[in-house]
Amino acid sequence: MKNKLYNYLLLISLGIFLVNITACKENKSKKQEDAVVVSETSLEEELYRPNFHFTPEANWMNDPNGMFYLNGKYHLYFQYYPESNVWGPMHWGHAISDDMINWKEQPIALYPDDLGLIFSGSIVVDTNNTSGFGENGIAPVVAIFTHHNMQGEKDGKLDFQTQSIAYSLDEGFTWTKYSNNPVISNPGIKDFRDPKVIWDDKNKKWIMSLAAGNKIMFYSSTNLKEWNFESDFGENLGQHGGLWECPDLFPIKVDGSDETKWVLIVSINPAGPNGGSATQYFIGDFNGKSFELDKKFSKQLNEDNAVWLDYGRDNYAGVTWSNIPETDGRKLFIGWMSNWEYARDVPTFKWRSTMTIARELKLKSNKDKFILHSLPVDELNSYSNKTIKKDKIESSDIKKLLNDSDLDMAKLNLEFELNDLKEETYNISFYNKEGDTLIIGLNNLDNKFFINRQKSGKVDFSEKFAPNTSTVSMQKGMKSLKFQILLDKTSIEIFLNDGEIVMTELFFPNYPLELFSITSKDKTFKIENLQIQEFKFN
Ligand code: FRU
Question: Residue 473 contacts by C-beta under 8 Å, 6 or more apart in sequence?
Answer without folding.
Answer: 447, 448
